[in-house]
Sequence to fold (924 residues):
Amino acid sequence: MTTVLNPLAVTALVAALDEHRVMTDNSTCEIYSHDETPRHCLPLAVVFPHSHDETVAIMQIAIEFGIVLIARGAGSGNVGGALPSPNSIVVSFECMNQVLEFHPEDRYIVVQSGVVTAEIDRIAREHGLFYPPDPGSSAYSRIGGNLAMNAAGPRAVKYGVTRDYVMGLRAVTGAGTTLTSGCRTTKGVMGYDLTRLLVGSEGTLALITEATLKLLPIPEARATLRVCYASNSDACRAVSRVMNQAVIPCALEFMDSFSIQAIQTAGAATDLPKGTHALLMVEADGAADDLPRQILALQTALTGAGMLDLQIASDKNAVAALWTARKALSHAVKTIAPLKINEDVVVPVSRLAELVIHIEHLAQSYQLPIVSFGHAGNGNLHVNIMVDPANNDQMQRAKQALHELFSQVLALGGTLTGEHGVGSEKRPYVTMEIDTASLGIMRQIKYQFDPHNLLNPEKLLP
Amino acid sequence: MTTVLNPLAVTALVAALDEHRVMTDNSTCEIYSHDETPRHCLPLAVVFPHSHDETVAIMQIAIEFGIVLIARGAGSGNVGGALPSPNSIVVSFECMNQVLEFHPEDRYIVVQSGVVTAEIDRIAREHGLFYPPDPGSSAYSRIGGNLAMNAAGPRAVKYGVTRDYVMGLRAVTGAGTTLTSGCRTTKGVMGYDLTRLLVGSEGTLALITEATLKLLPIPEARATLRVCYASNSDACRAVSRVMNQAVIPCALEFMDSFSIQAIQTAGAATDLPKGTHALLMVEADGAADDLPRQILALQTALTGAGMLDLQIASDKNAVAALWTARKALSHAVKTIAPLKINEDVVVPVSRLAELVIHIEHLAQSYQLPIVSFGHAGNGNLHVNIMVDPANNDQMQRAKQALHELFSQVLALGGTLTGEHGVGSEKRPYVTMEIDTASLGIMRQIKYQFDPHNLLNPEKLLP
Fold:
């Protein structure tokens, strides 16, 4: 096993890029050795292409020297998608941060894959448009990473996910071939849909270099509702009622009883009424004149057994005040245990109450704190099992709880990951959901796009 | 070249299905020998599976005897997608017309691929939901055909296309393997997106047997606007203005000057004001209370240079009266010439006026009647070159005009087909739009899914 990069490969990379964009020093490699997971693996080098053509050159050098490439945006993924493999080179797209074209009149933008997600949104907003997908990391995540993982966020309940905003891509396959997919129009059915095959393929099929993205007009107004419930089930039943009437909110976020307990222990959200054991944060957007009608419909659907309090805000400060509890959660969760095993399961919304009851049961029977919150309008829950990695017994119980959780999610008609992806973390569980024949087809596709198995080889497919 | 089916294959098919669902007689084969194109090719047999398992059995027999299979819904396609190849068997999914599951509370339905598109919509409407994709043939088209071609229709401008409503599929690959893709939730990122790879693959990769489809709540109210303009360019500029403000109509249909001329020659649409040379049909839908605001915004955008008349209707009869001109078009077009060469090009909406001017120029320089109408909100025009197939000189000019049209569409940043697909008709033009490397990848995918080249082998890929 080599532990340094072949000097001839370094020479070739420096010739293709320049010496400042081929980094092999330990401190640079250290920075790129991990993503948001606790795992860590030092790459042999980090390279920073400026263009599609440079990315082609990197791929060709990787083929020549048999070196594994790990595509990386901001490294903000949750499942190890950008985690280096042993003896790999990280291809960081950070320097490919140019907007290539912007056509506000046709509502699309063409960007290099290293552009920050929020930057696309910001540019669009200057022309009355916005980019709907809003992963939690959008302030620093790169669009290439969003495309690789088919990222989503709270707005997905109304606006859909990254996949729904990609009109076309440019990419380099593992064979070094340039692939151009899709079109610049809102309709187009010429040839196989390679665009959506690459979206969500987690850097295992091709290196995405450019994307044509669809934009939408900014909704004129927005309002936020914070609704408190006496129990998890009461809140979940309200979610089901909301998703069963005509007004689709642009966010429908849930916090369970353990989440409320965590923030209250941390001294936050002192304004929640006594007896609050679950919380929904609901947002509506649209024309200013139409917003009152939407709010009324949502209010009606949210009202029911166990509802303790409903607050509405539409001005900036009041909205921020309502979000305080939710914002306090990330910090509060960290105080419970050193490590959160961060899951991302989805069930049909009508089964959400059953899922949450099952999670309560798991927490009790395995004696583990489990904090659940997330995008309830899509039935997408982030289930966080809080553990101390030094405690073997606890880690063992967490593993069992996880397996039971996944079985229950599938029994409820759900899927094991809604927006985080598979990466290395979920890889052992893929066969619980995808059958052997369908996996066989995916492996063939992988082989076809990446015949030398050089693109993120230890991810996604088991 | 065989012209009758191997008797052993017939025996095997009868054993797998039953004798009434394996038809080899000439009159049945004749019925299944064509689709909406003028071409014709007699299949060796037509088989009618009832289930996924029977479809697997048919595929296995096809592999054993080396017989080409042509998947067919209602045969309502425009590009020869369901046209038999020589010595092929047509697999008609007409008998696979069962709704397998319906979950209105979670807004999805699971159907066999032979269910009529409009029937899915009808069932959904009983529960306050609807199925948005609305191809012109939806009253008789089968959902399997819609999936194969990624069908769309007028509502695509607001609601998207078939692809956007498919959550998961069950299918049989050309290797006889059962493939299960996707999920039953509105989010899910487990594995490669095989669902959208199959949607639009025109029966060349797998036989789709079952689909899980997303439904939406029915908009409470709807209104129609008919707007007359002095010229094609005036109407196209209005389209661009409409698609540049926040209210997205649920239909934005265009009829050009040749269309108006055709219906007026046929004696229809006598109520259009004098000097009308282009027409827009615009629909808005939403909450009843919100509709006046939408209409006002659309009216403002539609008003501009060359607008001669704007009529609004919201009750059923008045709406029908406004649509008279558009409904008269199909019949009127048929009186111009024996054959229409029916194209389906798309350009970014801001380039629509340029496209229409180019078409006017083509009609003049090639001395051909060209009637254009279609889904202007998506920049998707059905360009119909009217010809007499017996007139060789005219056919030659039409061919040249077509090539020039396609070049111009691509130069404007467009695509050669928005919703009809490639089939056999557009196959000679694929290389104008898709580069060699990307086509190479598509061919590899075809080979991987269909290693014996038995599924619709003479379609889509050149």
Notes: The first strand of chain A starts at residue 22 and ends at 23.
